[in-house]
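Summary for the lay section of the report: proteins are chains of building blocks that fold into shapes. Here we show the chain for S41 family peptidase and then a coded description of the shape we predicted for it.
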Amino acid sequence: MRYLYILLFISFTSCALKQKQFSADFSSSSDGVPQLTYQQMLADHDSLISFFRQVSPIIYFNQEVRQIHFDRYARQLRKQIKPGMGMGAYLFIVEQTFNAAQDGHSNRLGSWQLDIMKSNWIPNGLVTNIDTSAISYGYQYENYANKNFSARLNLNLAYTNGEYYNLLPFSYKGQNYPAGMKVLYCNDVPVHQFVGKEITTISPLRWDRPNNRVYHERFYQPVQVFNQGQLKLVFEDGSAQKHQLIVGYKDTLQFTQKIVHPFGYNGEKEPLTTHYFERENIFYARMPLMIEAYGDSLAKKFSQLTAGNPVKAIVLDIRGNGGGSDNTYANFLGKIMNDTLKQDVVVGRNFSPYNQRQFKVNTDSVKNKKGFSFEVKVAALKAPDMYFISVPNFKFVTPDSLNAGFRGKVYLLQDRFIYSSASNLSNLASKNDQLVSIGETPDLLGGLQTNPSILQLPYSKIIFRIEPQIDFTGATKAADAFQNHVEYPVAYTIKELKERVTTEKPIYGRDFLYHSDPMFKKVLQLEQMNSRQH
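The coded shape description reads as follows.
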């Protein structure tokens, strides 16, 4: 499993953005990116579309379940390729084609991924079909996109309870704006309607299923939302007073408070945090990332903090956990729990010519290999042709021979910033009585995925990845493949969220958890109910 890598890209419309608004185009020197002819651009883009159709099951899920038609957007984008187009404008079209797939595991490789590919994936034989002499172009594409395709404007917006709010008070050109204002309009369009049309602009848009809308907290950064260099927003404060903001593309806001604790995915240096709450007999552990060594570290902390003390409940705080290895939580839970956590797993992949070569399958092997089939008993997609891999009683957690035999509840605190293996742990809770999930759903497609296919376009040499697998485990309808669950929904109010990001107190410290954290308070409430029942 991987960490989530979110890309913020822009849709190209001939009426909204001209190539002349970009900085100087790519260098035509010998070490610059390839300079493509019109016909080469068309062939290059056709290859991109073909790769998505063959590899990605997600574009078919989006079409059937979310009415996001990748092919329709891709055809429209292809028509915007014109004779004499520079490589900057062509890259812009390619970027929005990735966005049209609306998949967090399908995108052009960024600099840090290119670094890993050179140091790990290629030497270890995980990537074999890349022209390594062209890897340097990837850094040039990344640099160009960062400089040209999005504004630096930061409004510090948060989406909670179905609406956008500004977290911090700010000033702009002598006018003061309070914190906690709700966003009503963007460029004179109701904000939810505006964001709903940004399919080729930002990826991945999160799917708020209860409100049946997509959202993104940085919807205002794409360059083309700035009409003649300006962006217009209308807010409403708590007294129903309207506030209008017209801000320039290169402008910044002056915030009168600072964010102490960012609300989002955790950084790689975030530490493990553990507590033992003596009165409630609760062991608490914050797991910021799914790093394998953390599993053993937590088991040692558990033994140290609870030695000679009763433990009625365990809290695993995975808020902001972007993923890593499933072995992380498996190692810890295996050392404390008495029961095996298992379920019947069913995943699907496109049965396409590319995938048949990549995964070394054909009709005969699918029919004859154990666990492989063309039909399954769970719900799947109407298209494309797929083959399935079924693993009965797949073991996510196996008890250690010296496990602590813990039989109380294990509470998972989650927000929408969980992904990959962290999301898998959340999904386990929906199918196991001992695990209990509290908080928010991630609103991104989850489930068991595999290493993305690393691909390269033939003429531009753009290197990118596509997720080739989708999880149908337990699905009774196609939409269930979204695999987002929470048993006890708890959303932050904007007041709680503002306090959370601005307080000087450690938000994973004992005092803040106990007195100011609505998700931890839900644990205390549920434990009180359990005590009364027993």
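Put simply, here is one thing we learned. Confidence is low (pLDDT under 50) at residues 1-20.
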